[in-house]
Amino acid sequence: MSIDTETARKVAKLARIRVEDDALPVLANEFNAILGFIEQLNEVDVDGVEPMTSVTPMRLKRREDVVTDGDQQGAVLTNAPDAREGFFAVPKVVE
Amino acid sequence: MTELSKLKIAEARDKLRAKEITSAELTEACLAEVEGSATLNAFVHNTPEIAREQAKFADERIAMGMSPDLCGIPLGIKDLFCTKGVASQAASGILEGFKPEYESTVTTQLFRDGAVMLGKLNMDEFAMGSSNETSVYGDAVNPWQDGGRKLTPGGSSGGSAAAVAADLCLGATGTDTGGSIRQPAAFTGITGIKPTYGRVSRWGVVAFASSLDQAGPMTKDVRDAAIMLTSMSGHDPKDSTSADIPVPNFEAALTGDIKGKKIGIPREYRMDGMPDEIEKLWSQGQEMMRDAGAEIVDISLPHTKYALPAYYVIAPAEASSNLARYDGVRFGHRASLAEGDGITEMYEKTRAEGFGPEVQRRVMVGTYVLSAGFYDAYYNRARRVRALIKRDFDEVFATGVDAILTPATPSAAFGLGEMKDADPIQMYLNDVFTVTVNLAGLPGISIPTGFDSKGLPLGLQLIGRPWEEGDLLNCAYSLERAAQFVGKPEKWW
């Protein structure tokens, strides 16, 4: 499996990270080195082995489905780069 | 009284209770050390006002005879832990200016037990790195030097390791996803334990790879690690993966008696090209444990070789998901936008500016292995291999093995900048002995047991059964007593 510049561009897009065109070939090379390393996993016989979902054989705790918190609008917005009138503000998303 | 910062936690606790010293004095001594340690770049956000306030309160508690073990003990906190009102950036530009409105469970519990926070500690960005060179704050520097050559303290908990080794604080918190407590502990001649997955709450700790991340203490010896771990552990309703099982007093487990314990030596950890001094250190460790009455047995963990490749699928996959939240909307950095830029440009520019190269690389690798068409081939296959790695350990423990002894790292600390042009895989190999433990969810501890030919510290790792941190710490305690590692770096900073 080899990653070309076009695939690198697509992955950067999916990850929502801007990568300039001239940086794509280097990125594709790095991906290929890492994926080449990962390819070793193909040597392992995994027939009949379930993918691990939990490292400890414990059932996750459940809690009552009730409100435990709230009325924190100020605290929630404190760190926002742009908050207005009690909302997070972002560039226009609807035409 | 700068000598006070050299105290171990247990020593300071006893002196505080005996009223020989006050927490105020101890805290001032540490603050002075922190102040004078800028060249180590270990502390990156100092909190002297909070420290003095907490010390005053601790002295009042001690005066009233109500002092838990950590009461009045000055600690450093890794930047990955959210601390209320104090910068918590995970050493990333994308969290520039972020001051949490809440306190992580770990720091809440440490403060409940009277600990004093001196400040926040340097680390690799989002805990992704093995040399503390991916930090937005710049490199942390190892207090141990090789002549004038500046060395890495390891990573990702490099600031924590440097701070404890340089006696800037009495102990520190670290986190470990693939070796980030144990490798820096080994590089700086200190002790660090990664507990069983689920032992310590992850709530309020900036997430890297949620199925692997665990916090733990980094300290000057095993007893101190036991004391801090007891305080940090326990069930937390806010982390559904934290285990609802009792937390023993780990310090009480330290008898030093390991007679009849079965210690496994995994043959797969004898890597090609392993330096002689690591080989020698490992054999000496085996002899020490045998002399203490343990039975040394050869064991096999056949899938060891596949741990790093599995890790470099699973950890980036989880990271790509966890780090999706850094979008410039709710906290941290937002890129300035050009005329006509929409929300997608905002995301893309913000993340390109805010994340460093290693974080970008891992997020994109994670995105790729989770993308349509590759999910089964990479991600699911890696999770199957992970199940086999865990099964290897289960089978060994089922034969009655109590703990497994391995080297902690493939070498002593290397020079800062020396890996700059190496391919990323070379850096990843630092975690070859530690990463299996995260994949299997087990407790692992690194303790200093010797030196290389240049006089730099080297560590051994002990791996324990799940939830048996007490037994593991006791094995480590026995090894520590036998190894009698007493070195300290010469002060040059």
Explain what the structure shows.
- The complex is a heterodimer of chains A (95) and B (493).
- Chain A is mainly alpha-helical and 95 residues long.
- Chain A has a domain at 5-42.
- Chain A has helices at residues 5-14, 24-38, 73-77, and strands spanning 83-84, 87-88.
- In chain A, strand 1 and strand 2 form a beta hairpin.
- Chain A is flat and about 55 Å long.
- The two termini of chain A are 41 Å apart.
- The mean pLDDT of chain A is 93.
- Chain B is α/β, with parallel strands linked by helices and 493 residues long.
- Chain B has helices spanning 9-17, 23-35, 48-63, 105-112, 158-165, 182-188, 222-232, 276-291, 307-322, 343-354, 357-370, 375-398, 424-428, 435-439, 469-483, and strands at residues 43-46, 74-78, 116-121, 171-176, 191-194, 214-219, 262-266, 295-299, 403-407, 444-451, 457-464.
- The longest helix of chain B has 24 residues, at 375-398.
- Chain B is globular.
- The mean pLDDT of chain B is 97.
Distance between the termini of chain A: 41 Å
Our Rg estimate of chain A from Cα atoms comes to 23 Å
What is the string of helix and strand elements of chain B?
HHEHEHEHEHEEHEHEHHHHEHHEEH
Question: Within the largest sheet of chain A, what's the order of strands?
Answer: 1-2
Oligomer: heterodimer
Keywords, please?
heterodimer; A: 95 residues; mainly alpha; two-stranded antiparallel sheet; 3 helices; flat; B: 493 residues; alpha/beta; eleven-stranded mixed beta sheet; 11 strands
Q: What is the topological layout?
A:
The complex is a heterodimer of chains A (95) and B (493).
Chain A: H1 5-14, H2 24-38, H3 73-77, E1 83-84, E2 87-88
Antiparallel strand pairs in A: 1-2
Helix pairs in contact in A: 1-2
Chain B: H1 9-17, H2 23-35, E1 43-46, H3 48-63, E2 74-78, H4 105-112, E3 116-121, H5 158-165, E4 171-176, H6 182-188, E5 191-194, E6 214-219, H7 222-232, E7 262-266, H8 276-291, E8 295-299, H9 307-322, H10 343-354, H11 357-370, H12 375-398, E9 403-407, H13 424-428, H14 435-439, E10 444-451, E11 457-464, H15 469-483
Parallel strand pairs in B: 2-3, 2-4, 7-8, 7-9
Antiparallel strand pairs in B: 1-3, 4-6, 5-6, 5-10, 9-11, 10-11
Helix pairs in contact in B: 2-3, 5-6, 7-15, 9-11, 9-12
